[in-house]
Structures are given as structure tokens and as C-alpha cells.
Amino acid sequence: MKINSQDASLARQGLFGIIRIGVIPTAVHLIPLILQDIRKDAGPCASAVQVIPNEDIISKLISKEIDFSIMYTDQMPQANSFEVRTLYAEHQVLAAVDDSELPLQPEITWEEAATLPLALLTKGMHCRQLIDTGFQIAGVTPNVQMESDSLELIHAELMLGNVVTILPIASFPLRISGEQKLQKRALQGFSPGFIGLCRMKDEPITTFASRAWGTAVAIDYAHAIEKSCLTPVETEK
Hints:
The protein has two domains: 124 residues, Periplasmic binding protein-like II (D-Maltodextrin-Binding Protein, domain 2), CATH 3.40.190.10; 96 residues, Periplasmic binding protein-like II (D-Maltodextrin-Binding Protein, domain 2, 3-Layer(aba) Sandwich). Strands 6-10-5-9-7-8 form a six-stranded mixed beta sheet, sandwiched between helices. A five-stranded mixed beta sheet has the order 2-1-3-11-4, sandwiched between helices. The protein is α/β, with parallel strands linked by helices.
């Protein structure tokens, strides 16, 4: 009865269905791209998006609170009850405002990055763990001046020129407003994580959620990131 009531409510609003997505914080800016294609392919819809860590995503998949997730593939469940699709390799870059003094070459070493005033995500987040591994392998201690689980706070400090940061390209806003722009450098020898889609394989799923999954799987994420997010490297001032 609850499902029928929800369907009736959606129909009154002229909506074809609702899609519930769980996404890790560093991939949140992909959600508008996904929802745009879902609306185009499957019709007008409502959406409920939860920005949560990997471990919470898994529990919400099992409890059927979300239809599918966007998360790191190496942290996805390996059980047969989960369907997993790898989408793209996550490329992290060092980013600074345009008037910061960075090396002119398109790549920066971990040793050079360690000397800069860094704002990083907290140590419990997987992409931060990949960054820490890079510094450890290089044998250097980074100059971390801010740690936060808020991308918005890190972006704000970055745009004020107070810090530089290391983040996945897809974690930056799709558009940078105002006159202040960013320059970016790839990190030498960085081992990327892989981002993918995950859902429960054998659980009942609505027709709309099934169509939404098919749309999400078909998106060329590497091209979408290159087109809509910040370009990986800018070397000209």
C-alpha cells in the first residue's frame, strides 16, 4: 500500500518515478550529470541523494534505503548478491588559485607538494588514504594546515588563496564562478582509485529504478568529467 500511495503521489506530480542514490563525497558533482541523463532517458523523476561514506552506503543498499551507489570499487562488497560496474579511474590533482606560485611543468612531485600549505580531507576518507600513501612512499611529511570532511569548506579556503589542496577532479564544482580561477598539477606516480556503481542484484527493483541504473551505467564518465569539470592540468598563467 505504501508503494501504491507513493506511485499515486508521483503520478499526480507528473513524475515517472523516484531514484534513490548514495554517493561518496568526492563524486557528488557527478550526480547532476546522472540525474540529467536519467530524466532524458527515463522521464521526469524525483530524486533522493545521500552523500555518505562507503561503509554507510553498503548498509543502506542492504536495507533497501537506496537503489544504487557511487563508490570506490575496492571497497565494494564482493558477495554475489551485489552487482558492480567499474566506471572510471579517479585522478587526483594538486589545485591552487591562479596567482599561486607552482612549478610550470604539468606534474608536481610529492616532495614539492609536501612543502605547500595543504587543506585535505580527513584521514578516514579513502581518497585521503591514497594521498597519504603517496607521501609515505616519497618519504616526506606534508604541510597539512587544514583537515575537514567538508568539500565546501576546503573549496572556500582554496578560492581565498589560503591553501592548496589535493582532490579528485570530479570533486570540484562543475563550474568555477568569478574571476579567480584554478591551476592544477598532476602528481607524479599517483596510483588512482576506481569509482563504480553498485546495487543489490537479486532484490526487487522498480521498473523506473532499473531504467535509471541502465542509464547510469551507460554514461561515459571520463568524457563527462573532462568536459564538465576542471581540466586536469593547466600550465599557463
